[in-house]
Amino acid sequence: MFSFGIRSSKFLVSSVVHKRLLASTARSTQSFHIPVIDFTQFREATALSDRKRIADKIVSAFKESGFIYLSGHGIPSATIQATFAKSAEFFRMPDENKAELAWEDPRSNRGYVKIGRERVTQSADPDEIAALRAKAPDFKETMEIGRDWDAEWNNRWPRETDVPHFKQTMLNFYQICHSLHVEVMRSIALGLEIEESFFDAKINEQCHNLRLLSYPPIKRTLLEGEGQARAGSHSDSDYGTLTLLFQDLVGGLEVQNPHTGDFIPATPIPGTIVINVGDLLARWSNDVLRSTLHRVVAPTAEKLHETETITPVRQSIAFFCNPNFDTKIACLPNCGKVAKYPPVNTGDYIVGRLAVTYT
């Protein structure tokens, strides 16, 4: 909101100009918001018309902002809390134990990623990313988990004695998230007025990535350098169809209003999952569905002394949903007569993006 000094002629603004400014601000704010959508009616509906009503809301939101809060998703809060607890237990392991599980290959995309190794950015240029990483590394550590039955690549699990039940907890959560992905993709198909099962055979191989994230405490002065944030502004780290984001209550996720360039906090709402469109789904839909720039910034810091503060620990869990790696991504029906992009192979696209993101 704008504030004007109306008692001083030096700062006097006419009421007409004032009203126009306020109206302009209101329009830009109202044109961008992240809606809360109750998915219960889609999951439990028996009539196609009922499912279509929710599907239309989801697709409309993905066209406008690229983000939704999904409530009524069917994942018990106890399951989510247990997964968060095991994630925190993993990151409390000694550094040398985590280092044994280090991420090694973009074709695998599995294992532990230490602080500063990943640099999330819009750039696809390796040299530019390396320079950004040196100047402003992302202050987070992650654990990357893929489908466990893969014939070529293995997950990198901690010893059971180090984190009891970690493997089974994450495998169960992986399956739950995949099932939700299938349902949301069915809603997108309905909302785009194509066959509801259109995506089923294109996502059934579960080529997804479950990412556990930990943002350790950090002194505020270390976050004040040029280009620095807890995780860089990006849309193309979300390479696939959708991202399911489970947040703690600390917050920090911000989404860019594409109309103004301003970043808007995606404040955690208990009981909801934040879901956003990934780059391949945007490309698949010929940009009818929006892949929106977003970032993670440091939350309010706690005071250490007169000149220094420190941020609290933050946790999140992201489930990056992908098409099957052999799927060809080409313009969907009902998404324009002229394709903006040439067809691309899912596996080639994702591996190529990962290869320049990590050292």
From TrEMBL:
Record's keyword terms, sorted: Iron, Metal-binding, Oxidoreductase
GO molecular function annotation: metal ion binding; oxidoreductase activity
Sequence intervals crossing the membrane: none
PROSITE patterns assigned to the protein according to its UniProt record, in alphabetical order: FE2OG_OXY (PS51471)
Occurrences of domain Fe2OG dioxygenase (ranges): 203-323
InterPro entries: DIOX_N, IPNS-like_FE2OG_OXY, IPNS-like_sf, Iron_ascorbate_oxido_reductase, Oxoglu/Fe-dep_dioxygenase_dom
Organism superkingdom: Eukaryota
Recorded family membership: Belongs to the iron/ascorbate-dependent oxidoreductase family.
Name assigned to this protein: Fe2OG dioxygenase domain-containing protein
Organism expressing this protein natively: Collybia nuda
Upper lineage: Eukaryota, Fungi, Dikarya, Basidiomycota, Agaricomycotina
